[in-house]
Design a protein that fits this description.
This protein is α/β, with parallel strands linked by helices. It contains nine helices and seven strands.
């Protein structure tokens, strides 16, 4: 029999939000990662897009949040699209949880509006490394109270040249923070980061990375001449 979200001992407001989102049962990565993260453990999640990673780290981050106005969770994503997606999922997860504010920060949008919202107080920040660094340099994003750092699609961030930014960001956070990393592959650079910035992480490998993860999604591609894209 498959595990249910209620078997993960999640509170009623979270279960209600997950039900609104249409989730009936946790995916493998969710069923294994949520209890580990809630237990305070650093984890390396080897799992690719479409396996439900956002909920896997989104639920614990909301449950660990205290409505103080200080940033307690930082999620780093490789692109603005992924940051926006993660922000949207987190907002849905905390729909019935009072006092948890979520903000996505990324390039391409005016930084002044993001600074304004950060000054009002944001508990969970989702962003791209470049914009997070920019906000830190402007003293708009304070990570002194950070308790959870999430590196989502870590291999993609490294492929895009964000390693130095990631390390700079992590070095400014409290050494007591919990660090969660998700990656589809495990190149040497990933292992170097885990060795430096995680404490005895548990490896959670969900599914066969050579297989499609969601049968209800069909994938297509079209070859288009350059001038007609």
């Amino acid at each position: 029999m498959d595990t249910t979200f209620s078997e993960l001992n999640l509170p009623a407001p979270i279960l209600r939000a997950l039900d609104d989102m249409g989730f009936q049962a946790p995916t493998e990565i969710q069923a294994r990662a949520i209890p580990a993260i809630l237990g305070g453990q650093d984890i390396i999640g080897k799992s690719h897009t479409g396996t439900g990673k956002t909920v896997a780290f989104g639920v614990p981050s909301v449950l660990h949040t205290v409505p103080t106005g200080q940033t307690q969770t930082l999620v780093l994503c490789p692109t603005r699209e992924l940051a926006m997606q993660a922000e949207g999922e987190k907002r849905k997860i905390c729909k019935y949880t009072d006092g948890v504010r979520v903000l996505a920060v990324y390039g391409g949008d005016p930084i002044t509006g993001q600074i304004r919202q950060l000054k009002r107080g944001v508990e969970i920040v989702v962003g791209t490394p470049g914009r997070v660094m920019d906000l830190m340099r402007r003293h708009a994003l304070d990570l002194e109270s950070l308790s959870l750092a999430v590196l989502d699609e870590a291999d993609e961030m490294l492929n895009m040249g964000f390693r130095e930014d990631i390390e700079t960001i992590l070095q400014t956070t409290p050494p007591t923070r919990q660090t969660v990393l998700f990656s589809a592959t495990m190149p040497p650079e990933i292992l170097e980061i885990t060795g430096e910035y995680q404490h005895m992480p548990a490896l959670i490998e969900a599914g066969n990375t050579a297989e499609r993860t969601i049968d209800t999604i069909s994938q297509y591609y079209f070859e288009v001449p350059r001038g007609e894209k």
